[in-house]
Amino acid sequence: MWTYVARRLLAIPPLLLATSFLTHCLLAAAPGDYFSRLEDNPAISAEYLAALRAQANVDGGLLARYWAWLTHAVQGDFGHSFHFDLEVFTLIGERLGNTLLLSSSALVLAWGLALPLGVLAGVKQGTWIDKAVGFISFMGLSVPRVFFALLMVMFAASTGWFPTGGMRDPIDWDDFTPWEQWVDVAHHTVLPALVVGTTQMARYMRQMRAEMVETLGKDFVRTARAKGLAPWEVVWKHAFGNAINPLITLFGYSLAALLTGAFLVEVVFGWPGLATLTVDAVFSQDEPVVMGSVVMATVMLVLGNLAADLLLGLVDPRISLE
């Protein structure tokens, strides 16, 4: 297993190198830059603007600029944000935790609902329960995530049951106790996590139902039933462990969809995460922040896929990672 982990980890640097270089090329191909926007500001002199451009090294060649960024990035220095006037690493650290909170909440919601509902639909195949679960899954896969997010914002605004945006109360936050702050963040997380996790929940639900239907028809399940085991023992002790393996394979790959969905939902709900930071940086052409955000998102996806492969190897002893 450790050989497999080492091979996967050694594949990360080339992937980061290719991703960061492609991102840098796309940014360089965009017209203008951050400092071009400052030329129309009468309060900024041409000499001061030239000094800023020289300090940021935005007028160098494509390869020279990328090499300068790369030599600092391998040392953990992703540069200084033009727009936010802060270190990029500090900015990403502040926002990354918020994005992980939203994505992990959506993941818990998706798995917590999809597994029992998928098992129930597989056991009750052909009944109204199976049809109801199938309808929920169909709706979850059919409704566009951005449209669903807008519907949830409208629902929150019309009912007043949930906040319409943000991550915490902007007025009374400093007066809250630690418990009240936790409750406030959880209250703000409900709707964004529901929107992000709905598509994954529907996909897991369909997969779990299909695997349970197939597994319940296998010989070892019929043997367990013939031995007189209780129905719940047959389902949860014999069938469930075999049926869940494909879902564990999907776990790491679903992180990409979760992060993508979280990025879209963050913008709609005004969630202060990595997505809103990246969007603001793209529109302001804040090159260091965009580069750092893309690299961080790539690292998260690679580690998620590695975690999925390791989990699958631990759950299913028939799979040899070596």
Distance between the termini: 6 Å
Count helical runs: 13
How does the helix and strand content classify structurally?
mainly alpha
Overall number of strands: 0
Mean pLDDT: 76
Low-confidence stretches: none
* Name of the CATH class of the largest domain: Mainly Alpha
Task: Please give the radius of gyration in angstroms.
Answer: 24 Å
Main β-sheet, in a few words?
none
Q: How much helix is in the residues?
A: over 70%
Assembly type = single chain
Structural overview:
By secondary structure, this protein is mainly α. The chain has two domains: 2-73, no CATH class; 88-315, Orthogonal Bundle (MetI-like fold), CATH 1.10.3720.10. It is 75% helix and 0% strand. The chain contains 13 helices and no strands. The chain has helices at residues 2-10, 12-29, 46-56, 62-73, 88-123, 128-142, 145-159, 178-216, 219-226, 231-243, 245-269, 274-283, 287-315. The longest helix has 39 residues, at 178-216. It starts with a helix and ends in a 7-residue tail after the last helix. The mean pLDDT is 76.
Question: What labels would you give this structure?
Answer:
mainly alpha; 75% helix; 322 residues
Which SSEs are present, and which pair or pack?
Layout: H1 2-10, H2 12-29, H3 46-56, H4 62-73, H5 88-123, H6 128-142, H7 145-159, H8 178-216, H9 219-226, H10 231-243, H11 245-269, H12 274-283, H13 287-315
Helix pairs in contact: 2-13, 5-6, 5-8, 5-11, 5-13, 6-8, 7-8, 7-11, 8-10, 8-11, 9-10, 11-12, 11-13, 12-13
